Amino acid sequence: MKRQDVKGQVAIVTGASSGVGWQSAVRLAEAGVRLCVTARTAQALERLRDEVLQRGGECLVVPGDVTVQEDVERVVRECLAHYGRVDVLVNNAGVQSYGLFDALPWEHITRVLDVNCLGFMRFARGVLPHFRRQGRGHVLNVQSMLSRGGAPLLSAYTASKHATLGWAKALRLELEGTGIEVSNILVPSVDTNMFAHAPTLLSRAPAPVPPTYDVDVVARSVVAAVRRPGRTRVPVFLQGRLILALDAVAPWVGQFLLGHFGARMQQRDEPVERREGNLFQPMTRSYGPHGPVPPTPRWKRYSATAGLAALAGGVVLGVAGLARAAR
Ligand SMILES: NC(=O)c1ccc[n+]([C@@H]2O[C@H](COP(=O)([O-])OP(=O)(O)OC[C@H]3O[C@@H](n4cnc5c(N)ncnc54)[C@H](OP(=O)(O)O)[C@@H]3O)[C@@H](O)[C@H]2O)c1
Q1: Which of 37, 112, 142, 146 could cysteine-pair with 156, CB 3.0–4.6 Å?
Q2: Is 142 in the pocket of ligand 1 (CB under 6 A)?
Q3: What is the Å distance from ligand 1's center to 7 Cα?
Q4: Does 157 qualify as catalytic in the annotation?
Q5: Which spans are transmembrane here (predicted)?
């Protein structure tokens, strides 16, 4: 698809009070996109609006909960009343809950699916009638590497992200030829407050599966997707294209590493801040783009990349060798 001029376009960004949503809103505003930002925490959204205005952008704040149909309709309505249009929906609001599947409270499982999966669908249904009338529009979904793979302790989250990617694929097919685009971003671990926000059944605080990247890599990918819609983007190499390639040729590598070390990798030596997390009530203290776990230093990422690339190369050569021997 041809690169689009995004200046003056109007985007609704959900989950904008923190992390990926916050940073994407800032980067979109810098690119000239006019914003309607939403999440439950009005105070954080107002701080975001101040930052956007300082950078010369436009920002309408409409607080709301993605699990509440009336809130979703109100956000879309107020955006249309204010700007007269909406061009892009950045579906981003997300939650997770840490614990073994059979120990997770049932209401955590249903809530994670409600926010991450039905929340995306509610907002898409909110904007699609307007997109159809305009003959153009863009549903941009902030997905996860766990839309493809899996991680222990995150079964409900993984299920929600697989479901949302499947939904997005079907939606893209239905919208073929309408001028309405669907994009996805497969987000790696990034340094947001998600790991301070998530409820956990474990005694230690949650941590992202390493390596962890600066959230700005995702925000820049969001802007790139608004410029060139319609693709599924993988913004990084190591916890992105390389892992996906390795998973295609030797899925047992990821199975072994995450099966044996995944649970330990996803905990840090810090006490749990608020055990019930942000599932049902927002955590008002932690907003802004960055969270408690800093990005992995570059040298560590490069060493891991070299190691995994060598392993992937070895697997490919081994398989090729076996195939030759069998002929
Ligand atoms: N961080 C990572 O490593 C990572 C990796 C892969 C994918 N992702 C994806 O990136 C997206 C954003 O996550 P993040 O890392 O930025 O997490 P975050 O810092 O915890 O932000 C989550 C956002 O979702 C909002 N939210 C939560 N429940 C909501 C509800 N019921 N209604 C409306 N808004 C709600 C929160 O705002 P309020 O609490 O104010 O409502 C907040 O703005 C998610 O879709 C996540 O799956 C993140």
Answers
A1: 112
A2: yes
A3: 26
A4: yes
A5: 302-323
